[in-house]
Amino acid sequence: MTGTTEPLLSVEHLVVEFPAGRARWVQAVSDVSFSVMEGETLGLVGESGCGKSTTGMAVAQITRPTSGRVIFDGKELTELAGEKLRHAKKGIQLIFQDPISSLNPRRTVAEIVAEPLEVWKVGDRRSRRNRAHEAMEAVGLDPRISGSRRPHEFSGGQCQRISIARALTADPKLMICDEPVSALDVSVQAQIINLLEDTKRRYGLTLVFIAHDLAVVKNVSDKIAVMYLGRLCETAPADELYANPAHPYTKALLASIPSPDPRAATLTARIQGDLPSPLAPPSGCRFRTRCKYAQPRCSEEIPRLSEIGPNHQVACHFPLAAGATMTTTADKKG
Amino acid sequence: MRTAPLDTISNDTGSSDRPAFKPLLLVEDLRCGFHTGQGLIHAVDGVSFSLERGRALGLVGESGSGKTVLARSIMGLLPRSGVTKSGQVNLDGQDISQLSPRQLRHLWGAQLAMIFQDPMTALNPVVRIGRQITEHMRAHLGIGRAEARSAAVALLESVGIPEPDRRLSSYPHQLSGGTRQRVMIAIALACGPKLLLADEPTTGLDVTVQAQVLDLLAAQQARRSMGLILVTHDLAVVAGRAEETAVMYAGKIVEKGPTSVLFHHPLMPYTEALLRAIPRLDLPSHTRLGAIPGRPPDLSALPPGCRFAPRCPYAQDRCRTQEPPLEEAGAGHFFACWYPRKGSLPASWSYTDSVTDLPRAPTSVTSSQAAIPEGQIQ
Ligand SMILES: Nc1ncnc2c1ncn2[C@@H]1O[C@H](COP(=O)(O)OP(=O)(O)OP(=O)(O)O)[C@@H](O)[C@H]1O
Ligand SMILES: Nc1ncnc2c1ncn2[C@@H]1O[C@H](COP(=O)(O)OP(=O)(O)OP(=O)(O)O)[C@@H](O)[C@H]1O
Ligand code: SF4
Ligand code: SF4
Ligand SMILES: [Mg+2]
Ligand SMILES: [Mg+2]
Question: Which ipTM was obtained for this model?
């Protein structure tokens, strides 16, 4: 069903609510829509608590959305349940931030990597072992040396390799990587990012890459979606988002990334203050309490995601003009 | 580990009677070893550097390179048993490396303070924030309860915590990660230290919060003219914030110098490799990162010669037998390498061009040796 024009994954008006005690609800994800074409990497970026993981879990139907649609590989997952759902989402695999705790400490690496094959009873034991070995080799682990060891004997970066190998044995089409490198050293982070890029190319994968570091996200993504307090602020091709950020929040996120160039001036467009409570998000635009461009209209009306350029959408009443520099304040257009 | 207790005010280490040209901190040939199952390992192995008053030094290196052990041995905060330590730590003219824990307690807080890697474990979870700050100040500065409270409010305000009055009655778990780290900074600053050791103060925080916390540290440092050692594994973090940077590898400083020089003209291949591993916003997406193959050596089985040789794309025979000394290249720029990199990394370097640069080596280097191999494990 995945032609070249149909996205592999479409998310439409996704809403996820959690009970927050005393008959209150947190809307962790509010009206989020995006799509990912086959072979593409979508980066999902935003501060802690903005709903990135919840979005990922809802796409994989581990958390069932409160409303909205998730269409994967031509099937509407949100309509399915039980065995039908299990089959329909077989092509989705997840990789988590904490590589060590997401691996069963009592099993050997070879057993862990073969887990998806056991679940699906693919082939006999021997062919399962061969597939697992192949996947381990693909991620740079020697099955003869590492296969019989247990996760705690490995460093964070190597545990992340094990997670990737396990995901690969399931023969996925879509891999949702939730902060896969956030807990790693810069040098190991580079190894894992390169490995993900190679694996993606080699196996023709589609990725949803979740992280809070926009520099990391930009490096791996074709397209980026910026989230704030459960809502999408902006989506754009990766290089376009960097060159022409239109949402004040995107601009502030960009300004927070430390530049490895000591001569780069320290940017002042930093974001101030703390994230408001997700239990009582600000009315209108959720970013308005921290936005230096906020106007009365921003508290009254929710800004809708609208197209401002090819594949470039922004949800802001006063988006920044294209090419807006990091310092001007008069760069709004009505 | 709790924050360095700030027990009593010190009155014997005032700087007025010390010569002004002495650096604030002078570390000489510091060594710190642990007795482990694999024998004695040196987590800090002959480290020397100095830091002027009011200046910041970035201390960078991969996980396990010895940054925390170095910071703790400067503080005098190492485990009591199974540890060997030698070398000098001169703070404001006084050798503090031989002081007893009791004598050290006089220095902690007022002379030097440390911010620990994980604020959740560093703060006492069952004591309200207010008490954690005022206890230190009352004991240390000899002030009363009310006075300490208003000082604590002012302090929380100065580190950018909204509603500081209300925050004093919060417990650590009720605060966000960024606010907890601000509280840690407030506690460390409470008694006006001359030197602050910040061990990965922003690791695990959101980038936005990281930027805020680093800005805060820089502002406080400038305002108080305090010395700062900023420990991190991310070179980008120190780029705009430390005048000097020291790179550690397997317990040694392998390169140090003025930050702008070190970033644009790294001489030691390890420094260069760390720089190439950083994803850069100003480069197109999918730009390949320069991953350093493998991992740092096991300290109980160090390779002979240069400790970076097993991972170094420029290594030659000499590197595998003789250890390079730390040499001065000029203007306070030191490096330890037999075949230093000659090129400079332009402000917006591309990862591909200088990787193909051949090392400044005698003759027989093939281009395959010069390319950094990737994805290879151990
Ligand atoms: N199972 C749950 N029950 C109640 N609230 C939840 C649950 N999971 C998440 N939340 C809330 O939903 C919001 C979004 O959380 P989520 O974990 O998706 O954020 P995130 O962007 O992944 O953050 P981080 O960067 O910290 O991982 C948060 O306010 C969180 O507290
Ligand atoms: N108490 C101890 N006993 C034995 N070995 C130790 C002890 N503390 C640290 N080490 C060892 O000393 C070396 C340096 O550790 P250190 O914590 O200083 O590294 P680091 O550079 O701070 O790393 P990270 O970035 O992970 O914090 C490591 O190999 C570590 O295993
Ligand atoms: S809608 Fe208003 S408050 Fe929201 S980002 Fe745009 S200008 Fe700022
Ligand atoms: S001494 Fe040799 S092995 Fe060590 S960093 Fe220099 S070139 Fe590489
Ligand atoms: Mg998350
Ligand atoms: Mg450390």
Answer: 0.86
